[in-house]
From TrEMBL:
The keyword Oxidoreductase applies. Keywords: Monooxygenase, Oxidoreductase. The keyword Oxidoreductase applies. It comes from Sphaerisporangium rhizosphaerae. This is LLM class flavin-dependent oxidoreductase. SUPFAM superfamilies: Bacterial luciferase-like.
């Protein structure tokens, strides 16, 4: 099982000071967060893609490419690559290049995004969101798996005898997760191809998340990829820790209350009851995460959001230390002891290369 962190790269003011980091500061701090994650022994660092303020993650492969050069072990991924508004040819080229630079330690998560105006900014219609996701990904798979592609579709100009370069490292394309919060069509797409399905359940009650995962697993088996419980599932979550739970809640509450996502809605306590948001001691985070297995079955990847919302950078680094030193070692041991032998590990470049051989 893989454990890691993800960031959406938002800029927000610290409620205590009213000061927000500059774009330059935020980008540099994301790099420092990734380096800290590797130092702490985490498995994955992932970042989203947004093309509007208050976010700075418009070019994930650029930032990940820089992080590749500063790290040696951690797997680098995206928590959203916009399959709807990016050209699949460019995705194929960018991530194959990153895969070579990273010696294979890269995968990516396809998603439609949650910012409606991004569609017209890139010449697309939001009403075509699902159709774009389906068509663009079908083309991307061919670009990575066929040396010469002839193709014609609805949403881009045709390709004639086209070869995407560079070719994937060792002839093995990066592993793809399909990320969705609410779209059953995306769970179906992941199942059809036998890819991973990542449900970022960060804002959702467990009943909804369970329905989406069960749909994916059922259809994964239907399409002949193996038993439903061998499907590849990832989950999200958000945590904030201090040694004492009351300190964690007192520190996190101002950021929660001033968040454009959480603020002016249910209270912190109610949100923690209804969603995976976990604020408390390391042991409370361990207990809460272990319940994910009870709720959703065995799964392969757990990513935590620990930054953003104006949280001070030192507090973010503290969260990674808690994860690396106290939380993840226990979770690894507990999940491994509970997992049946036939449940697969999360795919890596080496495992995919071995399977291809």
């Amino acid at each position: 099982m893989q454990f890691g962190i993800f960031t959406v790269g938002d800029i927000a003011p610290d409620p205590a000071t009213g000061r927000a980091p500059t774009e330059h500061e935020r980008i540099r701090r994301m790099v420092e967060t990734a380096l800290k994650a590797e130092e702490a022994g985490l498995d994955v660092f992932a970042m989203g893609e947004h093309h509007n303020p208050p976010f700075v993650t418009s070019s994930p492969t650029t930032i990940l490419g820089y992080i590749v050069a500063r790290t040696s072990r951690i797997l680098l991924s995206t928590s959203t690559t916009l399959i709807t508004t990016n050209d699949p040819v460019k995705i194929a080229e960018d991530f194959a290049t990153l895969q070579h630079l990273a010696e294979g330690r890269v995968d990516l998560m396809m998603g439609r995004g949650n910012t409606g105006p991004v569609y017209p900014w890139f010449g697309k219609d939001i009403r075509d969101g699902i159709a774009l996701a389906v068509e663009n990904y079908a083309l991307l798979r061919r670009l990575w798996r066929e040396d010469v592609v002839d193709w014609q579709g609805r949403f881009r100009t045709p390709l004639q005898s086209f070869t995407s370069t560079p070719r994937p490292l060792d002839g093995v394309p990066p592993f793809v997760w399909h990320g969705s919060i609410r779209s059953p069509e995306i769970a179906e797409q992941a199942a059809y191809y036998g890819d991973g399905f990542f449900h970022n359940n960060i804002f959702w009650p467990k009943e909804h998340t369970r329905r989406m995962i069960e749909l994916y697993r059922t259809r994964f088996e239907h399409y002949g990829h193996g038993p439903a419980d061998r499907a590849i599932v990832g989950l999200g979550g958000q945590v904030y820790m201090r040694r004492r739970s009351q300190d964690a809640i007192a520190e996190f509450r101002p950021f929660f209350d001033n968040s454009p996502t959480y603020g002016n809605g249910p209270s912190l306590e109610e949100t923690m009851r209804q969603t995976p948001l976990a604020v408390g001691s390391p042991q409370e985070i361990i207990d809460r995460t272990l319940r994910f297995r009870e709720d959703f079955g065995d799964y392969q990847r757990q990513l935590f959001n620990v930054d953003g919302m104006g949280l001070p950078h030192h507090a973010v680094l503290d969260q990674i230390e808690f994860l690396g030193e106290e939380v993840v070692p226990v979770l690894r041991k507990e999940f491994a002891s509970l997992r049946p032998a036939h449940i697969p590990d999360a795919p890596t470049h080496e495992s995919l290369k071995a399977a291809q051989r």
